[in-house]
Amino acid sequence: MRLSFALSKLSLFLFTSASLFLQGCSEAPKTEQAAMHPAAVATTIATYEDAPFTIELPATLSGSKEVQVRARVTGILESRNFDEGQTVKQSQSLFTIDLVPYQLAVESAQAALNGAKASLVQAEREVKRLAKLRAEKSVSQRDYDNASSTQDIANTTLEAAKVALKEAQLNLQYAQVKAPVAGVMGREFVSVGTFVSGPDLLLTQITQFDPIRLRFGISEREQLQMRQDVANGSLTLPEKGQWHTSIKLQDGSLSNKSGKVNFSDVRINPNTGTSELQAIIPNTDFELRPGQFVRVMLSGAVRKNAFVIPQRAVLDNGTGKFVYVVAKNEQGSTIARPAPVEVGEWIQKPDNQGDKNFWLIKSGIQQGDEVIIDGMAKIFFPGMPVAVNNATNNVSAE
Length: 398
What we know:
It holds the Pfam family HH_MFP_RND. This is Efflux RND transporter periplasmic adaptor subunit. This protein is an alpha+beta fold. About 30% of the residues lie in helices and about 40% in strands. The protein has helices at about 1-35, 100-135, 140-175, 220-230; strands at about 40-45, 50-70, 75-80, 85-90, 95, 175-180, 185, 195, 200-220, 235, 245-250, 255-265, 275-280, 295-310, 315, 320-330, 335-340, 340-350, 355-365, 370-375, 385-390. A 6-stranded antiparallel beta barrel has the order 2-9-13-12-11-14. The chain has a 4-stranded antiparallel β-sheet with strand order 6-5-3-8. α2 (about 100-135) runs antiparallel to α3 (about 140-175). The protein is elongated, with a radius of gyration of 44 Å.
């Protein structure tokens, strides 16, 4: 009996001790959480604003004019008057075809013109002489009419001789092949001494570097989205589609040259699903070269009533992007609440805190939300207490 009572008493003691131990363990995290100091954070108030809308796309450069140089006349190529890669002016001599035959043709045409002039003078004198005799009825009407016809034929012959002379002079000019545009010379395709058979033979090419043409495509999906945004009033596009264009080079640096879109194709390329746009860029120092791959940044459009948040405030948890918003928990404490967001364009603009990189937020936050922009590294878990230091800052496009 005494042994059973002792065992029962020992069991009760052990059960009570274990219960107290487990209760203490379960209350430890709550005690630790309650004792945790709030994380110091900086915030900004989400407000509507008009934000710049920028598109960045791959693009290629080409000469504003790429001209094939051909001879309009035939003959032996006597000289090449340029160096390959040389910059030439418009009308500068490039090739010379044997000029002698064309000089002789000019002299022959000039002689024919002189003869036609003499024939006309003689015909005019004859008509004048017969006109007096006809008045005295000393010659027949037929003789007078024949003289008048001869004068008309002499006039026609003279006009034909003038045209022949102009043609001979033009051929002489064509024998001196000149640059049709200013630009940079390509390589020669025909050597000196070759017989040039006429326009069917390509002599060389000229590429006009200044200005230079920038070509790129916008996808059909992006265009449809922009049309929808314009229709619902959230986006305004540049007037007449004249986007301002800036160029980003392969090393990431920005070119100091810019221009405007001057052509937008209404057709969609079935192979790429894009429509082509073109801009003309001044290029006086030839820094930009045809065939170069660059990125073009299109600006001039405006997002209406948008939220713009510093880029550093937008985090990624592996399943999507989110921001921390200041909120109150059930106990009335100030905490950091995660808010999943949908981001739009990456916007670059300076603000009074020195920030340059911002995200445009399409959804996930509301007007007046207090978004945490600094101190996120101190937030160890969602719902952690926070202490706001500058809750009066606003997101601004100024």
